[in-house]
Each structure stands twice: as structure tokens, then as C-alpha cells.
Amino acid sequence: xxxxxxxxxxxxxxxxxxxxxxxxxxxxxxxxxxxxxxxxxxxxxxxxxxxxxxxxxxxxxxxxxxxxxxxxxxxxxxxxxxxxxxxxxxxxxxxxxxxxxxxxxxxxxxxxxxxxxxxxxxxxxxxxxxxxxxxxxxxxxxxxxxxxxxxxxxxxxxxxxxxxxxxxxxxxxxxxxxxxxxxxxxxxxxxxxxxxxxxxxxxxxxxxxxxxxxxxxxxxxxxxxxxxxxxxxxxxxxxxxxxxxxxxxxxxxxxxxxxxxxxxxxxxxxxxxxxxxxxxxxxxxxxxxxxxxxxxxxxxxxxxxxxxxxxxxxxxxxxxxxxxxxxxxxxxxxxxxxxxxxxxxxxxxxxxxxxxxxxxxxxxxxxxxxxxxxxxxxxxxxxxxxxxxxxxxxxxxxxxxxxxxxxxxxxxxxxxxxxxxxxxxxxxxxxxxxxxxxxxxxxxxxxxxxxxxxxxxxxxxxxxxxxxxxxxxxxxxxxxxxxxxxxxxxxxxxxxxxxxxxxxxxxxxxxxxxxxxxxxxxxxxxxxxxxxxxxxxxxxxxxxxxxxxxxxxxxxxxxxxxxxxxxxxxxxxxxxxxxxxxxxxxxxxxxxxxxxxxxxxxxxxxxxxxxxxxxxxxxxxxxxxxxxxxxxxxxxxxxxxxxxxxxxxxxxxxxxxxxxxxxxxxxxxxxxxxxxxxxxxxxxxxxxxxxxxxxxxxxxxxxxxxxxxxxxxxxxxxxxxx
Length: 722
What we know:
Layout: H1 11-25, E1 30-34, H2 40-55, E2 58-63, H3 66-82, E3 87-89, H4 103-138, H5 142-165, H6 172-179, H7 183-189, H8 196-205, H9 210-217, E4 223-227, H10 229-232, H11 234-244, E5 251-255, H12 261-269, E6 271-274, H13 275-286, H14 292-314, E7 328-330, H15 340-348, H16 354-377, H17 388-402, E8 408-416, E9 423-431, H18 435-444, E10 447-452, H19 458-465, E11 471-475, E12 484-489, H20 502-518, E13 523-527, H21 530-546, E14 554-556, H22 564-572, E15 577-581, E16 599-603, H23 612-625, H24 630-648, E17 659-664, H25 673-676, H26 687-692, E18 693-696, H27 698-711
Helix pairs in contact: 1-2, 4-5, 4-6, 4-16, 12-18, 13-14, 13-17, 14-15, 14-16, 14-17, 16-17, 20-21, 20-27, 23-24
């Protein structure tokens, strides 16, 4: 309890902390599902810090949601008020660099700067020594004169070296790190829990490199808050643990919003290489005066031509003209044989052997990369050139050696360059099984806690992420049940084939309109995609204008637009409705507390786009877990219902909140299970949530909401007419 920053934990919070503490002491993994109000963050963080203090470990808590990052910082600051801990918030170099250079450039600048500073310090020491020897020789010490002569020779050599180094690229910010007293920075850093923005600003004012100082100060701290990629990317993880001064077994990892780990791990394991990279590599090889360049060209040009030919052959009439600025997949997988791109590559390749030529390309690329590094260090180039040959050769080698392995799926995708209007492609090795990434991580670290409001069913999470016999616990909403209602509204199922049906649209619009009118405040409405959100926003505006007595403001969240300003406008309103996508940023990690929103509607079942890539994931799960229906359940149905459950959790955020949560689609209802069969998703919800779902006809929803909100005296004045 020394790390618990408030008076008393909730009853379930105390139980969760006790169970998590016991599991972490035993080095076990924990799957922890808790609805809003269960205090998941502190339930995980408090016992993790206690075990880390007892066993000299470091706690790393990580998320991919910005809102949660801010919550972690707030909780860590509260803990430091009660029990001194050293905590840092760590972000990638790209968001903290003062001169905006890439990783390779930064590394070269650091090495050059340190070399210059070391040489200057050596020069100062030699100058001081030669002055001492001069004094001694003037006092009659004959040996001092000989020693001074040797020192002067060294000094001349150092000065020549400094003359050479003056032309090299250096970082003035990092130079100040090395030459100035930075104790003040570290004193300031650990007075509180500092955000990356605060560190950047503090360092910028003093012309220091805050990122490098943070790396120096991170060793041996009690708590680190960071992003997923610091743990899921194996290369970054190895460096990160080295900066911490910890072996993996000395780290307790806590993953927040852990239902996202599956997709994040898959993304980190996926490799891509674009047509532009191959073109640059071939240009690079054309300028290389090396006999191996011809061998490298044999392999890379054949793969480049095969890539172009593969996607060009896939276009039907008019399809090329319809390609937009987003990447679009081109199916290339085949049953029982290699994919179309590999077959085209093998057919086009001419040379002494693909592996031999790729090996030559790799070795030449490594040498060219070393030359680029040296040129940047010496100041011959203003930026650090990346070797395209090395990147292209490494990718083709991986494509040929790994592309057909279990769980890996070959993909070609195309896009249109907005500037040139040119269509170009990329090849991708898509990883279907995230446990190939996460399984190794969970084995390496001391223990993990994976927490989320939507982790169930636990056996699926265990299989997908490669967890061995984790401790599991789940806590539902702890707030008064009388303060909420959760309805499964039997509007027509919004199958993709029925969404354009005018009768279906009219039924859904009328039901949404009724719910908005009966809500004594704002209504959040989530749809399967942005297109449907836009469709119903327009219909609601039209309906509202035609019924002046029920006029409401309709807000529409559109893809690619910043949402915080829209959210602030919405919560400042009263009686408004916000239409957005279940796949957007407002569906999870964002709170609508108190009067921000009182009703949340989920319209339809948000199945993802079931393309060939999704089919590949299903097939990989079927093969990995020995079940013909396993792939659909693991890869589609469960993640879809998790999306729905996340959206429902945007309201009812405290014991005092009163609200309605409604699912508008017959597939959610208990009654429809016998009619819809496999299309019903009711049984995919956890048992306690299914028990809370009340089936209701769309025509009765307005009366149920009117009675519920009326019983809680939520209407300011007269209640609306049903």
C-alpha cells in the first residue's frame, strides 16, 4: 500500500492488487480485464512497483493510446507524492530530436561529436602537462625537458587530428551534453515525473540534447512509461533494456489496452519494400565501380521487374485509373505453389544463382553503407545517405528464405503518388501470427501484466499471444447497476448487402433519432465505418430539420481529421449527437465523463474488411490451433465484439454517471440467436455482459429510455414527448 496514492482502494482493486502481487512474485503472466472504474492502472502498477522494489527490478508500463499515456503520468505523479520513485516517460528519438535527423545520422553525429570532445580534452590535458614540464625544466630538471618534447609531439598530433575533425558533422546540442555540467538537468528530471514535451522544452532552452540525457538518466529507474514499440520491436527492446541497465529477467512489463497487442505485434513483424527502393538501389549499383554490382543487378532488377509486372497484370479494365493514395492489396497467393510474384521473379531471373547474387548484393551494400557513414562523419555530405542496395537485398533474401514459412503471407500492394500521379507498388511479408513476436518477449522478461477492458475470452488471448498458463482475472462494472441500461435493439441486421435498402435505413434512422430525443444530454453514435457514419449524420440532420420541435446539432467525425477539437465542441454542447466510426480514434482510450455524453449507440456489427489478408490470418489460426472455425472466431468475431465493447465503455465512467448503452442490430439480441445462427454475435460477449443485455424492439426503445431517464430525474424541465 505504500505505492497506493489515495486513501483506500476499491474492494475489487484491493483483491486485484493482491492477486497480481502474488503472480508477479512467482514470475507469472497476468491477463487482467477490468471495466471502467475498476482502477486497472493502479491495480497493476502498485503491486508491480512493490515487487520491483523488493527484487531490484524495473517496471515498464506501455500503451499505444495517447490518452492512456497521460493517465499513466498522472498516476505516477500521484505515487511520487506518497513514496519516492524515480520515473521517466520515454518516447522515440524522432519526437525529441532538436535538429530532426534520422537514426543513422544521429548515431554518426554522436560518434563525431564525442571524438571531437575527447580530442579537445586530450589537448587540454597535454597543454597543462607541457606547462608543468616547462616549469620543471626551467627549474633545472633535465628529464622534464625530454618529457616535454614527447608531450609536444603528442600535442602536435592531437592538433592535426582536431584540424581533420573540424570538417566533420557534429551536433552542438550533444556537444553541450558532454562539455557542460548536467547535474541540474537530472536533479530537475527526478523532482517529478516529466513528460517528453517538458524535457524537450527544458533542454531546448539550455541547448542540450534531452533525448541523450534521458538515455543516460534512465539506468536503474523504478518506472518507465513508453510506447509499444520499445518492447515489441526486438532490436529496439535490446537497446532499451541496455539503456535501463537491466537484463530482460529484471523487467516487469505492464501492457495497457492489451487487446491492441495482437495487431501491434503483427505490424512490428511485417516487412515491406517499395518499388521506389528497388529503383534507387539499381541507380546506386549503376554508379558503383565494383564487379559485384553486376551480380546484384541480376537479382534486384529481376525482382523489381517481377513486382511491376505482377501488379500490372492484376488490373482489370479501368482499375488502374481508380487506384487512390491509400495502399490497396493485390492478391498474389496461390494454393499449393509459390505466390505469383515469386514465380514471376524466378521466370525473369538470369544469373549464376539467386542466393549467390543476393549474397554479393548484401556484401556490396554493407560496404557502400559503411562508405556513406564515413562520408557523413567526415563532413563530405550534409545528410547521412541510406544504402538502398542493402535494404533491397535484405528484403529479397527474406522473401525467398522466409516468405513461405508458417504464419507469413506474401502481399503486393499499390498506391498513387499524389505529387506525380504515378502508380507504384511494394512487396510485403505479412506476419499472421503475433505470438511469433510476443511469445519470445513473454519468455524473456520477469513477468507481465496485460490489462484491458476487453481481453476475454482469455483462452483466445492466451493462444494468440503465446502465453503459458497465465493468471486470469476479470472485474465488471463496479458502479450501481440501477444507473445504467444496456439494450440490444432489434433493428434490421446491417449486413453489407442490406445497408443500401431504403427501408432498413429508415428504420435505423428513426431508432437513432428516437434515442437522441430521449437523451437528456449528448449522444455518441458509432458505425461500422466512416461511410455509414456520414450517411446517417446526413439523414439525422434532414430528420431534425423536418421536425423543428426536436432540433439537434449533428457532429460528424471524418477520417484523417484531428478529433480533439471536434470532441471539445461536442462536449460543450447539449442535446447533440456525434457520429463516428468504430474503427476511429474515439472508440477507445477516450473518456466522455459526466455530462460529456449520456447515451452511446453502436449501430451495426463492425466486422473488418474481409480481404485476402484477413483470410490468410484466419487460415494461419486454423492451422496453428487445429480448428476449421478457429480462424473466424479468433481473427474476426472476437476482435469485432471487442471493438463494440470498447465503444460501449465510452460512457458510464464514474459511480455517479447515469446513462444508456444501446446496440442497434438484431445480431446482438438473445432472441435472434436461433434465427441468425452463426451470424449472431450475442454469445461472443462475456457471460456477465450478456446477462445485462436487454432485448427490445426499436419502437419501444424511446419509451424505455424515457422511463429510465425520468426515474433518475435527468430531464431539466418537461420530459420529451415519445
